[in-house]
Design a protein that fits this description.
The chain has 9 helices and 11 strands. By secondary structure, the chain is α/β, with parallel strands linked by helices. The protein has one domain: Aminopeptidase (3-Layer(aba) Sandwich), CATH 3.40.630. Helix 2 packs across helix 8 (288-307) and helix 6 packs across helix 8.
Length: 317
């Protein structure tokens, strides 16, 4: 997550997926929760070297994510490659770098209708002064949730196309999402909304926040309906201009470029914790039961907005 202030496994066989209600009733020690945590441990491992955009660690993470998408049966959004490269704007004193977004498509039953984007960013801060910034919460947590949601949607196809976007260079000023919106490998006019997942695994604040409903009030009933069966507290806010600097999350992550194009968004995330953008953002700090609950809520939300996409598309500015 980027704020104005700072802010092996391989192709393992898929586990059978329970219904949402059954999943929420299960304890944190069940097989699916263990799989969530195992995958999170891989993406946030020291071997990924903090996944800084343009680094060898980021390339390693990208290879692993694409392997997971391939194993589950997802397809590229266009052409034969999941990779969508873009030029990262260099900072003063640095050299040009190529970033790579990963974009997949889950076909819907109505492929000519509107589409839903669900996004997370796989990059983080890399290695600084000999310390590895693993970014377990920020944002390996969103990426693993995205993989899990994708698996479920492939087993039970959605009504409309769902685009899974794993963005690069979010920590460098949302450059991956800006590049994708500027030059999309799909018809942006069909995109009804973006669900952005960034920092959803830490329970320090004991709640998951949903931002975006002040900009698009028609989305709130869908989120409220999904929240009724959630096993974690769901709160609404962090999306109005009257807040102090850093507390308005309207442009804090990859939903920002979609919002700038008039595309509605719902952003899911926790509030900043002591390990935000620090080397201590490790898997060991994640509460498995809380994380499982946020993933279940994100999945339930995706199902609800999928059914309503034709009406949501009409709310685009």
């Amino acid at each position: 997550m980027t704020t104005p202030l700072l802010r092996t496994l391989g192709a393992a066989a898929l586990l059978s997926l329970p219904t949402l209600a059954a999943a929420q009733a299960r304890p944190a020690g069940d097989a699916e929760t263990a799989r969530l945590m195992q995958r999170l441990s891989v993406l946030a491992a020291d071997s990924m070297e903090g996944r800084r955009a343009g680094s060898a660690g980021a390339a390693r993470a990208r290879t692993w994510l694409i392997g997971q998408l391939t194993a589950m049966g997802a397809k590229p959004v266009s052409g034969s490659s999941f990779e969508v490269p873009f030029a990262i704007r260099p900072r003063q004193g640095s050299t040009d770098t190529v970033g790579v977004n990963i974009v997949a498509r889950i076909p819907g039953k109505n492929p000519s209708g509107p589409a839903l984007v669900i996004s997370a960013h796989y990059d983080h801060l890399g290695v600084r002064n000999g310390e590895t910034y693993n970014g377990a919460d920020d944002d390996a947590s969103g990426c693993i949730a995205l993989l899990t949601i994708g698996e479920r949607l492939l087993k039970e196809p959605p009504q409309h196309d769902v685009i899974l976007a794993f963005f690069d260079a979010e920590e460098m000023g949302l450059q991956g999402s800006r590049a994708l919106v500027a030059s999309p490998p799909f018809d942006l006019a069909r995109v009804a909304m973006d669900i952005s997942l960034d920092m959803i695994a830490r329970q320090d604040g004991k709640a998951l926040w949903v931002a975006g409903t002040s900009h698009n009030p028609t989305l709130k009933p869908h989120a409220e309906a999904a929240a009724k069966s959630a096993s974690v507290p769901i709160r609404f806010g962090h999306d109005t201009k009257d807040l102090k600097p850093g507390d308005d999350w309207t442009n804090s992550s990859d939903h920002g470029p979609f919002h700038a194009k008039g595309i509605p968004f719902l952003y899911l995330g926790v509030e900043d914790h002591p390990d935000y953008h620090k080397p201590g953002d490790d898997v060991e700090k994640v509460d498995a039961a809380f994380y499982r609950g946020t993933v279940e809520f994100a999945y339930a939300l995706a199902r609800r907005v999928d059914a309503a996409l034709p009406e949501i598309l009409k709310t685009r500015r």
